[in-house]
Structures are given as structure tokens and as C-alpha cells.
Design a protein that fits this description.
Two copies of one chain form a homodimer.
Chain A: H1 2-43, H2 47-78, H3 82-116, H4 125-128, H5 131-151, H6 154-184, H7 189-221, H8 225-228, H9 231-246
Helix pairs in contact in A: 1-2, 1-3, 1-5, 2-3, 3-7, 5-6, 5-7, 6-7
């Protein structure tokens, strides 16, 4: 009797965890769609589409609230331990990254409106040339991140972490080019600053994808790759500093 | 016998929760100190101090790992429910905001080095005039956030949420001024872009403080003030869209 009760509880937990994972993936799919819509709106100078991206962000925030609640309920009701608990906490963390990626797409849409809405002279194409490739890389990182989350694929997660270096380099090159354009022609400054905020938002989307990948590695390998590095050393240095401060 | 066991368990949980809260406050104190050090380094053009800020960020990341682990252990061992579980989850979320505020201070320090290190002509004072007031407001928001967390003070938390609007306005004014300077004198563009990244980092620190305040309100009032807004409406709109998409 005890065994069948336990088996029932385990099955219930697994079902609820599968539901939770599906919800996270659904939210991830929505966010991925938002990146694509935001960039399409920018490419096509489509203010209506940009406003839709901004409005749809509320939906993503709503999903975060729902999934956060589901995580808390699942922990409270099923009281998972060890790897099950870690899985729920990793999903809880992933949802918060997805919500921030959603914020990033909203920023891109807002900047699109600032660039085109009621402006007499739109920016020249060269100002925007780096945006689409960066957005494609960011969207690909998110797609791979969701895929790695489903399969708990550490190799894929590590690949995303490396991709983030590429995105950072693209950001730096794009920034240098934009600064050059501004110096050549000060009339481009207003538009260029808006483009800088767009590429900055894309670079941050990459950071959030990297964070998702790190949660996956942490979940599978049981260690935090980013933050364990040099931790002991830092703590030792800090203790030393404290001691020195306390000396007369 | 059962009662004394329960009382013992409750006391153990309360003790561990108090320890957890103290650790979060200690981490918050460190982060607050980092903001102040980063701005002092910028004011005094002190590259050594800026490099120290960057190095100390590892310590903050290390504390996040430790506290995250403590949260997970506390949930696994004590299996808290209802408001106790919500408190642990709110601390778990707060730590993630603090870590991101730490990242922001690291960015300010990095930009300080870019602005002053090995540069023949440092920026004029007017380029940097908005930085210190913005940093002071951001540091005050964090200080109040930690205070509101200790006292579970909803009034103070709501005050922080309002302060974030002030910081956003300061950011917008500072940005307009910087664009004007760049247009007046294109030689200031390089420095001005670095200052824009600094004020952007400060504006984001404000966002994270607002998030901490929202976690406090959520914890005390049991509702998510930011994200519940219009959620039902958004979900209804989304359902409608889905339906329309499926129609031939």
C-alpha cells in the first residue's frame, strides 16, 4: 500500500513537472516569436507591428507570474528534493531570463518607433546594417537554449555560451562603426544613439541566453560553471581585507 | 512528544531563515558598497580603485552561488509551505537582482577605465555632470530596498517603485544633454558614448531595485503588483488571436 501511494505521488509529480516544462517552452516560443516580430517591424518600418510587440510583452509577463506560481505550488505540494527540486528551481530561473529577453524585444520595438515615427528623415541603411545579423544570432541562441533545455543537452548549452562571445564581438564592431558614422556626420547622431540602444538590447538578450545555458549545465552537472570560478580565492581575499581593515 | 518535535522543527527553520536573510543583507551591503566605490573611482579618476571594483564582483557572484544553494537546501530539508516558502523564494529572487546590480557596478568601473586609462584628453566635466546624482539616487534606492526587505515595509517598497520613475527621467534628461554635446562637438562622441553606457547601467540598477521592491510587495500582499496588471485582458486577447489564426 505504501509503495503504491509513493508511486502515485511520483507519477503526479512527474506529470506536473512535465506540464511546467511545457509551459516554460511555450513561453520561450512566444519570446522567440517576439524577437522575430520586433526585427521584422524594424526592417519593414512597420509601426503597427512594433506596437503589437510592445502590447504582447504583457502576455509574457503574465506567463511568468503563472509559471512562478506553478513552481511554488509544485514545491509546496510535492516537496521534491535533490535533482527534482533543482529542476524546478532551474525552470524558475529560466522563466525569469525569458521575461528579461521579452523586455529586450520590447525595447527594440520602442526604439523602432522612436526611429521612424513622425521623423522627417529616416536613418540611412548603413546605420542599421549590423542589427539583423545580431538579432538572428540572438534568436538562434534562444532557440538552441530552449532545445537544450528540453533535451538537457550540455554540449548544446556549452555551444550557446561560446556563441555569446561571438555576439559580444559583433556588438563591439557594430558600436565602433556607429561611432565612426557619428563622427563623420553629426546629423546621424540621434538615429545612431537609438541604434546603439537596439544593439545593446540584443547583446543583453545574448547574455540572458547564456544564463539559461548555464542553468542547464548547472542542472545536469550539479555545479555552477560561471560562478564557482575563483570563488574560494575571492572569499579568501575578502577575509584578508576584512582582517586588515580591523587592524589599528 | 509530537508537539515538541514540531516546535523544534519550526525553531530550526526560523533560525535558518534568519541566517539566510542575514546573508542576503550582507550581500546587499557589499553591492551598495560597490556602487559607492565605482562612483568614487570615476570621480577621482582612480584606475586602481576601478580595477578593485571589477575584482570584487567575483565575491558577489560567489555569494549568490552560496545563497542559492542555501535556499535550495532549506526548501529540501525543511519543506516550508505557504508564507515561509514564499519568503525563501522572494530571497532567492532578490539575490538574483543583487547579482545583476553588481554587474552594473562592474560596467561602471569598466567604462571608467575606458574613459581615463591611457587617454590623452580626458572628458570635460560637463559630460559627467549627471552621473553622480543618478548614482546617488540608485544607491539610495538599493539602501531603502534592503531596509524594506528587513522590515517587510510595503510603504517603503512602494516609495522605491516611485523613485524609479525619477531615475528614468534623470536618465532621459542626461541622454538629451549628451546628444546635444555630441552634436556641438564631434570630438566628444567617444567619451559621450562611454558616459551613455554608464548612465544606462545606473538606470538598470534602478530597475533591479524596483524589482526587489516588487518582490517585497508580492511577499507581504501575496500578489504581484506589476505583472497581474491587465494579465487577464492579455490572455483573453491572445486566446482570440489564436482562434483567428486557426480560422481558414
Amino acid at each position: 500500500m505504501a509503495i503504491s501511494h509513493d508511486a502515485h505521488t511520483v507519477k503526479q509529480f512527474d506529470l506536473q513537472l512535465a506540464n511546467l516544462r511545457n509551459l516554460v517552452l511555450e513561453m520561450g516560443g512566444l519570446v522567440e516569436d517576439q524577437i522575430k516580430r520586433a526585427i521584422k517591424a524594424l526592417d519593414e518600418e512597420d509601426m503597427t507591428a512594433a506596437r503589437e510587440v510592445i502590447a504582447r510583452d504583457r502576455l509574457i509577463n503574465g506567463m511568468q507570474v503563472k509559471i512562478d506560481e506553478d513552481c511554488i505550488s509544485l514545491i509546496a505540494l510535492r516537496q521534491p528534493v535533490s535533482s527534482d527540486l533543482r529542476t524546478v528551481m532551474a525552470l524558475f530561473n529560466t522563466v525569469s531570463e525569458l521575461e528579461r529577453i521579452g523586455d529586450g524585444t520590447k525595447k527594440v520595438a520602442r526604439m523602432t518607433i522612436q526611429i521612424y515615427d513622425g521623423v522627417s528623415s529616416p536613418p540611412s541603411a548603413r546605420l542599421l546594417r549590423d542589427v539583423t545579423p545580431m538579432a538572428e544570432l540572438a534568436a538562434e541562441m534562444l532557440h538552441n537554449g530552449l532545445d537544450a533545455l528540453v533535451r538537457l543537452d550540455v554540449e548544446k548549452a556549452l555551444h550557446i555560451i561560446r556563441s555569446d562571445d561571438d555576439l559580444d564581438q559583433e556588438f563591439q564592431s557594430a558600436l565602433r562603426r556607429l561611432i565612426t558614422y557619428m563622427m563623420e556626420d553629426s546629423r546621424t547622431i540621434g538615429h545612431a544613439i537609438n541604434v546603439i540602444f537596439i544593439i545593446k538590447a540584443l547583446e543583453r538578450i545574448g547574455d540572458h541566453c547564456k544564463n539559461i545555458a548555464e542553468h542547464i549545465v548547472y542542472l545536469v552537472e550539479g555545479k555552477n560553471i560561471q560562478q564557482r570560478r575563483n570563488l574560494d580565492m575571492s572569499l579568501a581575499t575578502f577575509a584578508q581585507e576584512k582582517q586588515q581593515e580591523q587592524q589599528p
